[in-house]
Design a protein that fits this description.
The protein is 28% helix and 23% strand. It has 151 residues and is α/β, with parallel strands linked by helices. It has a single domain (6-144), classed as Nucleotidyltransferase, domain 5 (2-Layer Sandwich). It has a 6-stranded mixed β-sheet. Helix 3 (100-111) crosses helix 4. The radius of gyration is 15 Å and the shape is globular.
């Protein structure tokens, strides 16, 4: 059985990652400047992601209304995100984000397998070719599908 389509957010103070998909599939991801958090919240609340399309990193824009439940990383900087999402009446589930950046790196290499020569380098020593905040958000989303802490 496929899990439902949701949104994951990896909060940050300068930028944040956002992923829309399920545990099995990443439909859309973006790395968005913190200054645009209100715009991103409006997009999630309305179900229309066109407003954040310019920060897309992976996938295509999802269909309208694809994800209205948000799994939010519960690190030290999550409060402003939670407050904005709650004010916009978006259902949030706080998820422990411990080591999700490392999981995001692993997800990067699954989505973008290294060239043959790079495969001999251990995964822990490979450096992705871009920031992975969006994939950390997908890791949060995947974890969140098992979370029970609703706000």
């Amino acid at each position: 059985m496929k899990s439902m389509t949701c949104c994951g957010i990896d909060p940050g103070s300068e930028k944040f990652g956002m992923a829309i998909g399920s545990a099995e599939e990443l439909m859309f991801s973006a790395i968005i400047p913190y200054e645009k958090v209100d715009l991103a919240v409006r997009c999630v609340a309305s179900g229309d992601m066109r407003g954040i399309a310019e920060w897309r990193v992976e996938g295509d824009l999802p269909p309208a209304g694809a994800a209205r439940l948000v799994y939010l990383g519960g690190g030290t900087g999550h409060r402003p995100y939670l407050e904005r999402l709650t004010m916009a009446k978006v259902e949030c589930i706080i998820v422990d984000e411990y080591k999700t950046t490392l999981e995001g790196r692993e997800l990067y290499w699954k989505l973008h397998p290294p060239a043959l020569l790079m495969r001999i380098i251990p995964l822990s020593l490979r450096v992705p070719g871009r920031p992975v905040d969006d994939l950390a958000a997908w890791a949060i989303l995947k974890r969140g599908l098992n979370s029970q802490n609703r706000y």
